[in-house]
């Protein structure tokens, strides 16, 4: 059997306890008993104080014995085991890295230092003792150089020759006069003088100074490297920033980004085109043209409206309007309600703005025949055959020839953007009827012919013992509309009273008494909360609104036809302008199909006379009773009563006697 062998080449150590082993043969099953100071399966590892790597954070361990070690730390750590982080590394390292064995720490650059050791020690920290040798130096190398000005040739341990100069001379061969010896203070502010020639010198300045003689202060705070208004100070050949709260770092560059909250840019939650600028204690938003406000969340339209109304209580309302433009139609009355009726009428179209012509029974009408009135929701209304008109027109001919016709401008180009449909509204109604915005109506669109064929229907109730009905508006608690009484007008009066109780004003969209105050936009939420909380007025126990005893409605059919596209004939000098008016015009026709109308009237199921007659008739049929028999029975009752009365009188007289 061949015994495998392992050859160990162990380096000779200079310590006295080391053992030299050359070509050690070992059986694979053999074990080594190591000498003191060594360990390992083959005793190859020397036991030192550094074996457990006591130096942390990248420090280098130097062992002087099995139990003693020294750590050479990196520039950012200090301590016996390099466990301490240096907050001021680069500017105060000498406060943490102490040179050993009497060495002196010198700050060479803002981020580096070195130890100047005594003659008996060397190493980065002066931790290694210089071992001298007793071997006589080899001076043969001095034969090749000549030291001047009293200099002496010496050789080092390697046999290299050099000149050892007198104190006033320097250079390789002591050939340069050290004129710094004449005046050691030539270099100011701690600078070190060195000779550059027999009559010239230079200065090694401390890091805080510069210039030929170290007279120029090196201000590291100019320009100020500290961000966010930090205060700069020159410290240990570098600068130090006293950072404001919320910032940190050498230049105060570490700061929380105030523009971000939960990873969301605070300026772009609504306006995605906004730009956020981070500031020391906050942020500022630069909004796009469509938004404004600290976070660019308010529409510029809302902001402009606030400037006009002068109140911030309507912000939520205006924001709803921006997202839902149809709300404007509800808001307009709250704005117009603060104006006088004359001012409101002036803002709406007049007769000349709308009417091209109007006719009844094919006869042209004049402006006197059209009565203008104002409704806060509908604007200016124009009524033909109004009850206040000086001329009253009667229905004489059925069909279109006997009806009303008008060619009117729609003024579509003047409609605001939030109006979806451009059209005139047609309300067929009786002279005494009240028109609401929700009344039955028909749209007359531009470039179209609109025909309304209508028929009058009258409803009459008995009232009294047959059920409650109202003949006059004075019979209900509140009624603010003109014209004949209607249930809808009564319900709106109940609603207005409730609004006035809750908001100290009335809803401007409906009729109100002269003494009432019209609600402004500030009361928008209050007004809307009335129906939100109480519900519809028809369901209130306090609101009693019976049906009218007499009411008139119109049963209508509606037809809409597009104009035939040909150039209109007109008296204008330009057919082009005539055609433009024609495109914006609406032709309106309203007529009745016949001269008769429907009447629905309640009547008693049986009168008192009918009741007596019916009883008599039934009695005659079933009992043989006739009218003669009935008269005889009546006379019999009269005679019996008379006899009874007379007998009572006679009895009373006898008693008195």
Number of helices: 10
Structural class: alpha+beta
At CATH's second level, what is the architecture of the domain at 48-129?
A: Ribbon
**What is the highest CATH level, the class of the domain at 48-129?**
Mainly Beta
Strand content: 15-25%
Low-confidence stretches: 1-28
Describe this structure in words.
The strands form 18 sheets. Strands 29, 30, 33, 36, 39, 40 and 41 form a seven-stranded mixed beta sheet that branches. A two-stranded antiparallel ribbon has the order 1-2. The chain has a two-stranded antiparallel ribbon with strand order 3-4. Strand 23 (260-261) and strand 24 (264-265) form a beta hairpin. The termini are far apart. The chain is elongated. It has 657 residues and is α+β, with helices and mostly antiparallel strands. Among the domains are: 48-129, Laminin; 260-296, no CATH class; 608-656. 19% of the residues lie in helices and 24% in strands. Residues 46-83, 93-127, 138-175, 176-215, 217-253, 255-297 form the EGF-like domain. The chain crosses the membrane at residues 621-645.
Task: Describe the structure concisely.
By secondary structure, this protein is α+β, with helices and mostly antiparallel strands. About 20% of the residues lie in helices and about 25% in strands. β7 (about 105-110) and β8 form a beta hairpin.
Topology:
Layout: E1 38-39, E2 45-46, E3 60-63, E4 69-72, E5 77-78, E6 84-85, E7 104-109, E8 112-116, E9 121-122, E10 128-129, E11 152-155, E12 161-164, E13 169-170, E14 176-177, E15 192-195, E16 201-204, E17 209-210, E18 216-217, E19 231-235, E20 238-242, E21 247-248, E22 254-255, E23 260-261, E24 264-265, E25 275-278, E26 283-286, E27 291-292, E28 298-299, H1 300-309, H2 315-323, H3 328-336, H4 341-347, H5 351-354, E29 355-360, E30 363-364, E31 370-375, E32 379-384, E33 404-409, E34 424-426, E35 442-444, E36 448-460, E37 469-470, H6 487-503, H7 524-534, E38 547-548, E39 550-562, H8 575-583, E40 585-591, E41 598-601, H9 608-623, H10 627-656
Parallel strand pairs: 36-40, 36-41, 37-38
Antiparallel strand pairs: 1-2, 3-4, 5-6, 7-8, 9-10, 11-12, 13-14, 15-16, 17-18, 19-20, 21-22, 23-24, 25-26, 27-28, 29-30, 29-33, 31-32, 33-40, 34-35, 36-39
């Amino acid at each position: 059997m061949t015994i495998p062998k392992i050859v160990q080449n162990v380096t000779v150590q200079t310590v006295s306890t080391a053992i030299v082993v050359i070509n050690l043969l070992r059986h694979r099953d053999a074990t080594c008993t190591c000498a003191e100071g060594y360990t390992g399966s083959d005793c190859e590892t020397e036991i030192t104080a550094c074996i457990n790597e006591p130096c942390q954070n990248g420090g280098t361990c130097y062992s002087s014995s099995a139990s003693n070690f020294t750590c050479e730390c990196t520039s950012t750590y200090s301590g016996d085991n390099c466990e301490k982080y240096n907050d001021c590394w680069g500017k105060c390292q000498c406060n943490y890295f102490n040179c050993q064995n009497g060495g002196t720490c010198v700050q060479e650059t803002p981020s580096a230092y070195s130890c100047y050791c005594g003659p008996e020690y060397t190493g980065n920290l002066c931790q290694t003792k210089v071992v001298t040798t007793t071997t006589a130096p080899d001076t043969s190398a001095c034969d090749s150089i000549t030291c001047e000005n009293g200099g002496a040739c010496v050789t080092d341990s390697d046999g290299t020759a050099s000149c050892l100069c007198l104190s006033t001379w320097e250079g390789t061969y002591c050939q340069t006069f050290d004129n710094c010896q004449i005046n050691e203070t030539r270099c100011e502010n701690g600078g070190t003088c060195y000779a550059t020639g027999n009559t010239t010198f230079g200065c090694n300045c401390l890091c805080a100074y510069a210039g030929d003689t170290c007279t120029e202060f090196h201000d590291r705070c100019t320009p100020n490297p500290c961000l966010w208004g930090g205060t700069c100070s020159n410290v240990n050949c570098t600068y130090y920033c006293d950072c404001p709260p919320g910032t940190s770092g050498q230049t105060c560059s570490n700061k929380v980004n105030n523009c971000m909250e939960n990873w969301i840019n605070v300026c772009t939650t609504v306006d995605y085109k906004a730009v956020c600028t981070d500031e020391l204690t906050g942020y500022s938003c630069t909004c796009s043209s469509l938004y404004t406000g600290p976070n660019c969340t308010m529409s510029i339209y809302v902001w402009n409206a606030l400037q006009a109304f002068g109140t911030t209580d309507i912000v939520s309302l205006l924001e709803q309007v921006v997202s839902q433009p149809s709300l404007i139609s509800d808001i307009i009355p709250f704005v117009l309600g603060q104006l006088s009726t004359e001012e409101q009428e002036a803002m709406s179209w007049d007769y000349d703005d709308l009417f091209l012509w109007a006719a009844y029974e094919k006869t042209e009408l004049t402006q006197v025949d059209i009565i203008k009135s104002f409704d806060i929701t509908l604007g200016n209304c124009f009524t033909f055959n109004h009850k206040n008109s000086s001329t009253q027109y009667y229905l004489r001919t059925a069909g279109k020839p006997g009806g009303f016709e008008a060619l009117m401008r729609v003024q579509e180009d003047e409609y605001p953007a939030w109006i979806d449909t451009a059209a005139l509204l047609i309300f067929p109604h009786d002279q005494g009827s009240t028109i609401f915005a929700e009344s039955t109506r028909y749209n007359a669109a531009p470039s179209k012919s609109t025909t309304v064929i209508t028929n009058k229907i009258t409803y009459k109730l008995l009232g009294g013992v047959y059920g409650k009905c109202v003949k006059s508006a004075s019979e209900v608690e509140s009624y603010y509309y003109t014209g004949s009484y209607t249930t809808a007008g009564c319900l709106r009066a109940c609603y207005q009273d409730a609004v006035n109780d809750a908001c100290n004003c009335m809803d401007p969209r409906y009729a109100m008494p002269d003494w009432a105050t019209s609600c402004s936009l500030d009361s928008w939420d209050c007004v809307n909360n009335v129906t939100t909380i109480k519900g519809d007025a028809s369901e209130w126990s306090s609101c009693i609104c019976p049906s009218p005893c007499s009411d008139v409605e119109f049963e209508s059919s509606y037809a809409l036809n597009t104009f035939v596209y040909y150039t209109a004939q007109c008296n204008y000098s330009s057919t082009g302008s005539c055609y433009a008016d024609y495109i914006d015009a609406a032709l309106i026709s309203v007529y009745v199909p016949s001269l008769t109308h429907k009447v629905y009237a309640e009547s008693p199921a049986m009168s008192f006379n009918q009741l007596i007659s019916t009883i008599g008739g039934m009695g005659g049929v079933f009992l043989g009773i006739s009218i003669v028999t009935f008269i005889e029975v009546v006379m019999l009752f009269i005679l019996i009563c008379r006899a009874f009365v007379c007998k009572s009188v006679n009895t009373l007289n006898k008693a008195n006697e």
